[in-house]
Task: structure prediction
Amino acid sequence: MRGTLFILTCLTLTMAGCSTTGSPSTGPDSTAAGLDDYVPGPIAMRRLTKNQYVSTMHSLFGADLQFFPPTEVDTRVEGLLSLGANAATITPAGLERYESSARQVASQVLSPDRRGRLLGCMPESPTDADDACATEFVVGVGPRVLRRALREGEADDYVALAREATQELGDFYRGLESVLASWLLSADFLFIQERAHPLNSTSESAGRKLTAETLASRLSYFLWNSAPDAELLEAAFAGELDTDQGYRAQLERLLSNDERLGQGIRALFNDLYELDALETAPKDTSAFPQYTMGVIEDAKEQTLRTVVDHLLTRRADYRDLFTTRQTFMTKNLGPIYGIPVSEDWEAYEFPQEGARAGILSHVSFLALHARSARSSAVLRGEFILDSLLCTPIPAPPANVNFEALEPNSGLGDTARERLAVHRSDPNCAVCHDLMDPIGLAFENFDAIGQFRTQESGVTIETYGQIDETEYDDITGFYPALRNAPRLTTCMVLKLYMYAVGRLPAISENEVLEALEADFDSGGYDFVRLMENIALTHGFRATSGPREAEAEEGGA
Amino acid sequence: MSKKLGRRRVLHGMIGGAAVSVGLPYFDCLFNNHGTALAQTGAFPARFGTWFWGCGMNPARWVPTTEGSGYDLPPELAQGIDGFQDRVSVLTGFDTPLNGETNHPHYAPPTVTLAGQAPTSPTDVPRSTFDVEIANIIGASTRFRVLDVTADGQGSAWSAQSAGTPSPAESSPIALYQRVFGTGFQVGGDEPFVPDPAVMVRKSVLSSVIDQTKALESELGSHDRQRLDQYFTSIRQLENQLDVLLREPPDLPACFMPNEPGGENLAQEITQVIDTHNLFVDLLTIALACDQTRVFNINLWRIFTDVRFEGESTGYHRLTHDEFVDPALGYQPLSQRFVIKAMDAWRYLLTQLDSIQEGDNTLLDNTAVFAHSGTEFPKDHGTKNIPMLIAGSAGGRLNTGLHVRGAGSSTSRAALTLQQAFGVPVVTWGDRNIQTSSPIGELVP
Amino acid sequence: MIVQAQKPAALLLIAVLAACGDSTTSSDNTGGAGGTIPAPTVEEGVYDFLATELNFYYPEGLSESDTDATNLCGLDTITDNTTYRPLLFDDVVVNGFDLDDAVSTGDSGLCAQADYTGIDGSSGVDYGFLGIIDMIRPIRPDQVARGVLANAPSEGLINFGIRLSGVESLENDDSVEVFVAPTSEVPLRGTDGRIIPRSSVPIDPNPEWQTTFRGQIVDGVLTTEPADFTLGNIDLIIVFDRVLELRGARIRATFTEIREGVIEVDSILAGWWSNDNMIDTIGDIVLAIGANDGELQCSAEMWADGSSDGTSCDMTSMIFRTVSVSGFLTGFEEAN
Result:
């Protein structure tokens, strides 16, 4: 039953396929940006992920701020937290934490030693209300925090709140704190809100244009993983983002800030590679005492540094992320990789003939996709198929018997021999014929990513195949994956979903194909892909508010 | 707020007249001034809790052979309820149908049991869980509508606020202590009560948030409006908590200020997980006795748990898959140790709740704790015969001390029974073939 | 589920990938290594090790006599305690060296003490310090000293590395170089508190604290020629920055692969320990853990079996046992 379902899925995929190899981009501009006669998917109101909440606070008020991160549980949809965020709400327990963080932040922001950063005026008396100074604070800071212009009369309400609180507590600044706290608890802050212009402002067949404020948030969270900065918001308020020229100018500015764009790229890969889960992935410490918290932290950072260095600093081919031997090393990681390290974060090149190349040979990937005490060809294969090649694998039957997979099962010394047992069962083989050859290529790496040549005293074989490409060992797997066309198609899809915060509508298939063609013809320049996505109509427009019922029928 | 106050005044008047009509949950009548009211009437609020243990039990050692009252006690069950049998109902033979969805065996059964809907993926949270519905009825007036805790570090205790939104659970007893018994907590009757102006300002802030967010509502589509409604509900819940802080705390005889836990060790070894669980139970018991909350959810360990015995490298979940069934014993001997530990933990919860005297009864009597697991026989990870227990009668709202067989009906019947017992106006519960309109009649007084 | 509603669109797109995957092989990119992947290496013929344990050498099978100890130093504690009995080491086998090239008995010449039988059956093995161990309760087997000294590397108190170079084989090699130096940092420690194999640590740049031996490996046993040994950076809880010196020191070591890519070395370090240096390095700590004032001095004088000047008995033959694991020593450039 399960097998049948999956084969059907594969067929669907196959039939839809062969129109991708479209014409390459001709001019300096992307083909994707030229498409504008489709109605994109609906608005995506997204709860800030933990990560975004923290980075937003830091970018607004400084990185030295101390507060509790949210307790709300972020969930993944299509492998991305940023998609799960468009279904998430705020729980009572979660709001409790948000409220306590809001108060912590407000009291620090308005403390004597840092209030000057945001506040240009002084009250007549520090113990009495001062509407003029409060107004200055409300008008100056409110739009930054709320990521939108204040509505008519709204400022007066906040000034009134400040006055009331000041009178109650006898402290002007605590009055302002209550206003700031109210912003930090508002649905405009806790969610990324999206708004569209009325339908008549653009042609009916193309949906509705997003407002400038919405574009500012989309751009900023997509590229910088944080709230829009003052300049971007100013440009939105001034109407500059409503013109193509003004929009492109801001886009270029955001793309040219390497540090903040690097943060954005890190956030994306942190999400896509589930690196947030590394810290809590259980490991058997009696078997692996060398797997310390320092290793976990550095393993995650190593991969993110490598990604940013490769995609942003070097502007290298995205596909080479899976074959590059360039990385960075720390003393914590040295014992796991089995190499000498002189300085933390020194540049390091994996040996040319060695088994490691690309980010999938990093400890982060290998340890996360493994069991607590042993490697897992299945978990590794599944992640690559699901998250990197966009080929989802159904779950195994509930009563699956894993006895055969244990090293002491008597059914084989190596994972390859043991997996062969259940691949002989046709029910299992349907999926495992896809997963196992990929996952088994990584069997030279144990549960924490240490290199090994043997399991139970028997030499490990790592040959396999991906699509039609066969390889003898892991050093052949990396280029085979790199050259798999699905790899780039999938990246385009994931990045697009990440950027717009929702699944693509069927109407957006063509733009996705065009984006891929641009990616192909542009040498797989990742930053260029980000730029091209930001330039699509789908990124800048919407079908409108998201209706629960209409959605069920599909777009 | 003024409407509610009006209602309370009315009800308060009625209490004096002794006759409280049905239609409104009668314990709610007591909330405004319940310290005094309780002392006068001797009535205590009903509480509800859920308790989850992953990986099931061994049927031959757990399921009683006789039905009804006075059922026999096989060894694993005895470990959990010996001494409490007349106050615990055992539910066996209930299934979690999946409506044709793939069985994600580590997530599906508890989700079906609590939400009445099958998840479409391991991360899918299809809708709110029924403990939330009960909390809406009995939890609205306490400082915390519900407290969720997890002893094995999992992010939630299976409860979900709405689709896509699991409720976060405390994984650290110290954090729970600080949240409940830190700033803002006061034992009633200790000292003259002066409302804190800072709390009043916090309420003003929340009012401002609601006022300003109202404008947003009209801009959203129905999908996002539902999510915004949940957000408003959460804000109102926090307002209620602040209201509680602005009132003189009730003078409850069993309430006291506990000491902060001296330390905690949140590792995955069995001793630590059980210690963490028991510490949570201690704190929750006092939180209930002090009427800080009336609803709680506890996750002992998930199905996909890595909890292990000291010095062993294989965690419980792996063991359930990998360990051979001993043909002489009929079960997996190593895995079986965890069932015993889970049942110990369950009995600890009952013992603690029973240690708080409330009038002629105990806190346990005034509570209904619903225990459920994710499978029957650990090795199978099946969706049939999900074991469930209900301890306490919630102040006489449920019959106890019975063994009821479900004969293959859905676990959603337990969810329906419990919701109705707590006054949730629900007639049918669950999605498609999970759906039921039949509460478990034996449990209804 | 609402979230699922649009899924077909996503799936459709994925189809693209499955379909147009051109089925040409990329064999020219596979490297053609044919499954033989070299393990990570440092440098040809170089093996680095980090000390994880250090202790006085305690021979196997030490037993106690059934008579009370004699209060040889005239100190007040020994005779008071009838549970304190002399060690019997007439028949013990000692993993050491014949440092003075003489088979001594108790009266065979200047500073002579009875020698021991070696593990290979040879005679004349020197270990005068065993007599001192016998006389000072806190440093006898399984007493306090064991914890103090043995854990010193993992507690970051005494850390040193060993580099073997010019090695063609750890089984047999007629000429290898053995370099020993303190490290200037403490190696990483794991969740079990022990030093993590394959950690990288810089050597201390002070050349005076480094020793180079020549040696050979025969059937898996490394043996070095004598050299004067100096090791700095010795800390022992209450004493700091001491320098250990052994004259005419030699090493014997065996190698075991404890897991892939990690070798453990079990070794003894034997040599002449001047009584002055002995008291300077371990005197305070021995006192601190329960010896009597002057006890070490008295014992050392009594058991000294060597002479630095040919006239006075002022040094004692010593054996340390140390365990080390594969690691990486860095900082040689700075040191040179």
Summary: The longest strand of chain B covers residues 47-53.
